[in-house]
Amino acid sequence: MDRKTLTAAFPHTIPVLMGYLSIGVVFGWMMSAAGFAPVWSAVMSVSIYAGSGQYLGVELLSSAAPLADAAFLTLIINFRHLVYGLSMLEKFQGMGWRRAYMIFSLTDETYALLSGVQAPDGVDEKRFYLAIAVLDHLYWIAGSILGAAAGSMIAIDTEGIDFAMTALFLVIAVEQWRANTCHAPVLLGAAGTLACLLAFGPDNGRFLIPALAILVAGLLLMRPRLERLETSPEGGEIP
């Protein structure tokens, strides 16, 4: 990865840098508070790299949860990443061995960036996408290590601190809302999630998979209209 590509990608990742350093520190601190050595925070961030999944992992490891429970809850929490990967297959075509890493690296925030960003003139598009993904991953690893190191030396009450992940995603979601004129996918996701939450209840996140199924089905039905909107000169609503 050359300096030109990194220089072009870095400004787009600054919001993620600020957020991932903060919430990565929170994760590392939670791991240390649970009694784990800093090295385990780094290992999880390198190999798992799923913010909310890692937060959940702290609780599962602390309570010595059964493997079946841990697997099911992890699937529920991270099921949306399957949708992310499927929606990006076309964009990642021609990336060779890098394609597997790109799919692995699709956190909520990286997905939000890649969905709307365009490579500048003179910068290879595929390398540009890879640079964004790698930078975001490094931010998360760095935050985790810093938090774990600090947590091993300073003890604080970490209750409620895991809301930092939700706060970061909300900030990026607001930016995406403001940057796009078509809000139908967001409204569909919100309505489907609310309906499933009311129908199935919040216990163990069992409403998430039905909500994602509604979102995927709705987006498939809306795809022709969304593609026309994306290619329209005005970029506005299409009659």
Question: What keywords describe this structure?
Answer:
single chain, 239 residues, mainly alpha, 2 domains, globular, disordered C terminus
Describe the 3D structure:
- There is one protein chain.
- The protein has 239 residues and is an all-alpha fold.
- The chain folds into 2 domains: 177 residues, no CATH class; 60 residues, no CATH class.
- The chain has 11 helices and no strands.
- The protein is globular and about 55 Å long.
- The N and C termini lie far apart (43 Å).
Q: In percent terms, what proportion of residues is strand?
A: under 5%
Q: Specify Rg, calculated over alpha carbons.
A: 19 Å
Indicate the mean pLDDT. 80
Structural class: mainly alpha
Helix content: over 70%
Number of E-type strands? 0
The H/E string reads HHHHHHHHHHH
**Multimerization state:** single chain
Shape: globular
Map the helices and strands.
Blueprint: H1 3-33, H2 38-47, H3 51-62, H4 67-78, H5 80-88, H6 98-104, H7 108-116, H8 125-151, H9 163-179, H10 184-200, H11 208-231
Helix pairs in contact: 1-2, 1-3, 1-8, 1-9, 2-8, 3-4, 7-8, 7-9, 10-11
Entry summary:
With 239 residues, the protein is mostly helical. It has helices at residues 3-33, 38-47, 51-62, 67-78, 80-88, 98-104, 108-116, 125-151, 163-179, 184-200, 208-231.
